[in-house]
Amino acid sequence: MTTRTYRQTRRADATERTREAILDAAQEVFRADPQLDPSLDAVAARAGVSTRTVIRQFGSKEGLLEAAIAAGVEETQTTRHAEPGDVEGAVRAIVAHYEEMGDDVMRWLALADRLPVVRRVVERGTESHHDWVEEVFAPDLAGLPRGERRARRAALATATDVYVWHLLRRREGLGREATREAMLSLVEGARAR
Which of 68, 73, 77, 96 is the most buried (most CB within 10 A)? Predict the structure, then answer.
């Protein structure tokens, strides 16, 4: 019985490692393709597995795309973590996250109308951002009447949104630190409403 359990555990571990290798490869390949439409063969080659293995793990290109983006969104939760009430830490974390992923996110947003799977992931990302705002700015939202709470949360979500980062960083040409300071000013304005 122990040998059987050991083999099953090893097999499950190997399957999980293969799945992670495919997801990592998919994220790299999808990022390199502006239309988010690379071949499964390219992903398989990057992961060092067969195309059949990719299909067995994810079912289709759409399934793989959704899983790869969802894995990226999950990683996001840890990279932009800040303690509730730590406003400077929160802005620092969100700007660092956007420096790493902001251009990719903007590309996904542009493709959301064309690709339903990307639209679903973008919608989850929006929900995740609102949850982050609720958690990080909990002290600023606590005890407010419903309407005022909703308005303040909306202002805080907007001040920390990827579009704001993109406008400051890419359109206005601000450096990373100047972008962080500008976003912090916007957040402070939203908190002072």
Answer: 68
Token pair of 119 as six digits = 């639209």
Under 8 Å between Cβ of 193 and 151? yes
**Residues 35-90: pLDDT tens digits?**
667 788 999 999 999 999 999 999 988 888 878 877 776 676 667 788 999 999 99
The rounded distance, in Å, linking the Cα atoms of 177 and 151 is 28
With a CB cutoff of 8 Å and minimum separation 6, the contacts of 108 are: 36, 69, 118, 121, 122, 125
Mutual orientation of helices 2-32 and 51-58 as an angle, nearest 10°?
Answer: 100
Structure tokens belonging to residue 159? 């001040």
- Which of 111, 132, 100 has the alpha carbon at shortest distance from 37? 111
- Integer Cα distance of 107 and 36 in angstroms: 9
Tens digit of each residue's pLDDT (9 = 90 or more) over 100-142: 889 988 988 888 888 787 788 788 888 989 999 999 999 999 9
DSSP letter for 100, please. Answer: H
Contacts of residue 186, defined as CB under 8 A and 6 or more positions apart, other chains included, come to 159, 164
Give the C-alpha separation, 184 to 132, whole Å. 16
